[in-house]
Batch of 4 targets.
Target 1
Amino acid sequence: MMEILHVGIDDTDSKRRMCTTYVGAVALDRLRERGAKVEGFPKLIRLNPMWPHKTRGNCAVAFTLRVPPDEVEAVKETVLDTVLSLADLEAEGTNPGVVFYPRPEIPEKLKAYTRRVVQEVVELEEAEALAAEIGAEIHKFKEGRGIIGALAAVGHTLEGDCTYELIAYRTPENWGKPRRVDPSSVFEMDLLTRPRTFDNVDEESGEIRITPHTPCPVLYGIRGEDPEVLLRAHQLVRRLEPVERVVIYKTNQGTDEHLRRCRISEVRPYTSVILEGRVVAGPRTIPGGHVIFTLEDETGRVDCAAYEPTRGFRRVVRALRPGDRVRVCGGVREENGIPRTINLEKLSILELAPLFRRRNPRCPHCLKSLKSEGKGKGYSCKRCGAHFPHLKPELVRVEREVREGTFEVPPRCRRHLAKPLVRELSGGRP
Ligand code: ATP
């Protein structure tokens, strides 16, 4: 008889070192060496992207093991030793947490908690109380804040929409050095595997997106709809440095799970929302090149912003006009001095307001454009000399510079959790 053990790990890295997925990957290999069986794919769970104290992408990892009963304690030791030896414990903000949950079924209460950690802000005390209630064992290093994410990663069953990411890790002597991957092979891989893989490159800036810019152990990560396409994509990438290990994670990335549909009066800081309403003011470009417009629904008004790095996306936002009906997706920013603003991730133009411009009427006799005689004095024709004291200016419908549809920020500005349009268009998972 084997026992089930769910393991969650979070908050092991700092801006200068490490990555929680790497800690998970090393722990998994050490556990396999001990004879533990890993169930399915390890999970890479992205948590609330608006949580202000995240290091970078707010991710936690979890995996499920089948362990002989007399090995359970040794397995836990292996996980804890791995965290202890790899986590950047000297960094001030690094507060690792490890969670062990010993039952096969994930309780509904834990699933609901996970949803909140992805969408809202959760206190450490709440994580501790829930762990005690459901019988999850927690291990805190330093302040142990990581148990919030570790418990959430255990609780995510990825039953709904999900994607996969293949991560290739570098050998330690290369950590911190420039990554050596042939960019042209990434463009080729993108061409051959898209849309089953996504966000490999940024067409607008011409950069490859699979290699991070941080000193962490990741050489690259390829995201896609299934493990098979990721293995194929991995074969197509030309690596110019050794790879220490490769792991495929099942993940909630690219699913829009962070977004909560609500009304403007219900918008809260540190969350991400979907709002529907009409443009009532703007768009206006502010110093720095950011474009802002004001959205209104029956409950209130809020500013929505396309920031400068979103470049081409701002063209769409600039083309909006008061009266347009739109749906916006984005994170809520509210900082000292900055009024509450939705940081746009996606924009759907649902209905374009008709736009008119005034023009002088034409002469009914010779069809030439009439000349105004001054306010309230009517018009006269320069060619035939006729005078029309009661004619009014004509309203002509103006062609809009934008069409109805959904638009998104470019891959380099995309949140890990944001669902790229290509996933929606290609139907996502089969
Ligand atoms: P990386 O993506 O580089 O691995 P990170 O961005 O995931 O790093 P962490 O170092 O894991 O950042 O720090 C995030 C911390 O915030 C963790 O301790 C985690 O438990 C906690 N946390 C995550 N989401 C929430 C939330 N919604 N509410 C409260 N705390 C959270």
Target 2
Amino acid sequence: MTVSVSASTRYAPYIDGGYVDPQTDAVVESVNPTDGTVLYEMADCGEADVDRAVTSARRALESPEWRDMPPAERGRLLRRIADRIRELDGSLALVESRDNGKLIRELRAQHRALPNLYEYFAGWADKFHGDVVPKPAGTMNLLVPEPVGVVAAIVPWNSPLSIASNKIAPALAMGNTVVVKPSEHATAAIMEFVAALEDVGLPPGVLNVVPGLGGSAGAALTNHPGVDMIAFTGGTAAGRMIAAAAAQRTIRCQLELGGKSPNIVFADADLDRAANGIIAGIFAAAGQTCVAGSRCYLQREIYDEVLERVVARARTIRLGDPLDDETELGPVAFEAHLDRILGMIERADAEGAEVAAGGARATGDGLRDGFFVEPTVFTGVRPEMEIVREEVFGPVLTVLPFSDEDDVVAAANDTPYGLAAGVWTRDLNRAMRMTRRLNAGIVWVNTYRAMAPESPFGGFKASGYGKEGGEAVLHEFTRSKSVWIDLAEGPARDPFVIG
Ligand code: NDP
């Protein structure tokens, strides 16, 4: 089974189990970041389309077909989704790579792992069964998990299908219905994915997609009174707006936002592995990952040695077509993002940062029409500089020296963000001290970017709240109802004494 996308493709909203005619004439183009050509178009859904999608999701939520579906059957459904992804045999990875410029070899690996995510949550569908609070005989208190309701899943462009799946799989496993709003910059893989699920047995309306701009489809979905929860992954600025809108209606909100993660190397570390971890932490996906290790701290004793290795490797990273298996760094996802990154590099220069590698748009053979940035390493930076404080979301690393644990803990935690951190050391006691002291939702020791469906993922501070993955996310997508039952018999009690 394969899917293909062409310049004549125009994605309509996917509602009630199929594509429907959009209620708008507005159209958005998605551009191939490798060569600047138009890849496909999509409807820019507005309030009318979003209303139709939310109404469909509400109907499905309340339909006996979905509401009363045995949990084990929901699990089987998720397993069939996993099988369908396997049958697609990597073709969605190809679609996604063209769309956002991420390396095909990274996306193939990511998509190979996707069925495991659906199977993991398939397993939970009939195993998350609430609790019984111990009470004296004669009284029972049951905690019954229920779906939250209609979930709006708003996702970014850097790993669209994986990030959407992090929300879709647990939300469906717990009996919710979902309306997805993909990023205008990478919509195709999500549209092709839902279309490929046509015959897996999802009741109509359980999973819908409204393509379009953040300001139209995204805002309409965020503000729709029929939405019970917003699960958002994206930048901190949009996340704050969405949280404010959710607060206005007192609905639940889960936020996976940006980061400015420190990657810390102590002198006793395995320096080869640490240098690799620094390179992988910042240059994978051209730095367009929320957990990018964009602030590298090197202990003074090994500063020169590790910096030299990192700079030498950065200078030899192969840029090129992300569909080529030999390519190590693809373009960034769209032109406005390229301009934003180049602007931050220029301002870092102007503030006095020293360029140790890269520092410009890459315009070599085959790169000229694409949105390529040289792998860039800045030294001589100060903590107050924009390049050290703000998320670049591109292949740009800052390197700073440190003296001891207190020194580096203070520097690493001096950020509004708190998503992830890396620590490289052979000293187990030091590693454990650092994991306690770092103010980040994920701490990696002697590794970077390790993730799994069964492990909760999420940040602190301006990096958001709520967890994805693991048992933790099931609490996000359920509400717990407390049911009290009095089993006593005999004469009624004094009605004015509660207990
Ligand atoms: P944005 O915040 O701009 O967009 C994320 C999604 O929100 C997109 O679908 C976007 O639509 C939509 N959106 C934008 N404005 C609004 C609005 N006013 N109302 C409703 N929806 C809106 O982020 P990017 O797409 O630029 O993604 C990059 C950011 O995502 C980075 O900061 C990164 O750190 C973060 N991220 C976090 C992750 C995590 O797990 N913590 C993982 C991956 C990324 P459109 O694209 O059409 O504008």
Target 3
Amino acid sequence: MTVSFCGLQLAHRVINGSGTFDAIAARSVFGPALEQEFPFAAYVSKTITLEPREGNPPPRLWEAPGGLINSIGLPNKGLDAYLAEDLPRLAALTRADGAGGVADRPWPPSAPVPVITNVMGSSAEEFSRLVEACAARAEIAALELNVSCPNVATGLDIGAAPATLEDVVRATRARTGKPLIVKLTPNTADVAACAQAAEAGGADAVSLINTLRAMALAPGLEARPWLGGGTGGLSGPAVRAVALAQVAAVAAEVEIPVVGMGGVQSAAHARALIDVGATLVAVGTENFCDPLAGARIARGLAQTAPGSQSPS
Ligand code: FUM
């Protein structure tokens, strides 16, 4: 049974969270086996910006109880190099053609899977330039707007301000007919208002939650932040209950589909997000523990009935 999402026919409901699964590196580690059972029904790229970025100074990671704090800072080679170098490799890897999925393929899934390119700008103008360039590429099936990165100076300026968010989404909407997914921040008092703003601006879907802003102190007596960026974003099991509440709140207030994520480690966790209204579920931090988590969770999900989630 396939899943319809923003006009794409996907083999199942499980995708990856942006920046948590490097498909090009995974292909070189796992070889062709990766393509025989690609773990995700669509592949979400890491965040791409207009210009190359080095990312935040190290240290960039801190293991917290039940989770991970990252202060990565969106390192990437920039739009032009992504389109010239990485996108062709991703498209070949997953054989995505932008036509939208694998409707005629039997489960379990195999390539091709659609590529969703995640982009981040610091203004409507920057987002629009990114979206327009991606709109011209047939290998890209959909776009995800990262308006929720807590690790860069302007990361939350757009995503946590509903009126600004609506304007930015409206501006990018005008530049593409491809599906637009808006990735929302949990670092706001009213996530449903942000989701409604994205919908009003013309988003085809919203995804949530991105990481929760968090901090760790360096071991020792000095009260000095451990992370080079000062603060970071918390993900993993520690945020699962927050994600469930926010996905439920958003799904109740918007008509567009919701991609739920946050601490998903098992099919039961994925089922819980679907039960509160998510159409798709993204696996993030768990990919670092188990690179085949997406396939495991998709397989388990196919065997679980609605309402059969375990306590978080
Ligand atoms: O690279 C990063 O710091 C990613 C952050 C995010 O969007 O959550």
Target 4
Amino acid sequence: MSSLLSFIQPLAREAGALLMSHFGKVEYTYKGDVDLVTVADKQAEALIVERIKKQFPDHGIMGEEGARANAGSEYVWYIDPLDGTTNFAHGYPVFCVSIGLEHKGKRVAGAIYDPTRDELFSAEAGHGAELDGKRIHVSKTDNLGEALVATGFPTKKRHKNPNIHFYHHITMRTHGIRRGGSAALDLAYVACGRYDAYWEFILNPWDTAAGVLLVEEAGGKVTGVYNTPFEIVSREVVATNGVLHPGLTKELQNVFENKSIDDLPDLRAVAFKESH
Ligand code: IPD
Ligand code: CA
Ligand code: CA
């Protein structure tokens, strides 16, 4: 294992253990619309930042809860100390720690740790992706109609989000959509083949830094809806097993361009028809 991974992996586990010590007994406050934050988010970020600063004092840091260090450094750490805070705050056990590292704008290493399942996903550029030390690969599903797909909805400015149209369109063309509430885990699940694809709009660098590298190293593809290359500042993400990329991006483009959008059914008419 490289020295980078041997630093990141135990760090993600340590932060995950800290999250678990608060899980089920934590109060939350609001930092936006329905954007929650807990003491666990803050303590986990403080722990991760402290460890990084000790080991790599010159590296840049960008953490969701406000940590910033060494702007302009060639190396930048993107930290989501608790991805899935809404789940966490409600006692719903789907959340993780996400830590990603870039060097000169290139993704080099990352880890996503789910402490509820004790699952550690990690990847290093050029060396593949792993789950608990075993190599993982994206799925082989080659038909969108047989795909299990994930998406998410933003916690800030949710009234401005049109994703429900995309949700409706894609759910009619796949085995279904899951909305787990943790973007980093969604990406990790594409990497290990549990999901065949995932898309989301309005994400932040700490949501995607580690997960995008995982998907790429597991043989998948990550771009924007119009196939623009993914960069850390990209806010939209389409991540697939590669084979499904043309099909899924085409369908998402159709919605953007107002082509072939299915009308939402009239619920009362459907319910009436089916019960009579
Ligand atoms: C959120 C989760 C969620 C996604 C939101 C993110 P947070 O992150 O990843 O799945 O839909 O866009 O903001 O706030 O729990 O770290
Ligand atoms: Ca997040
Ligand atoms: Ca977070």
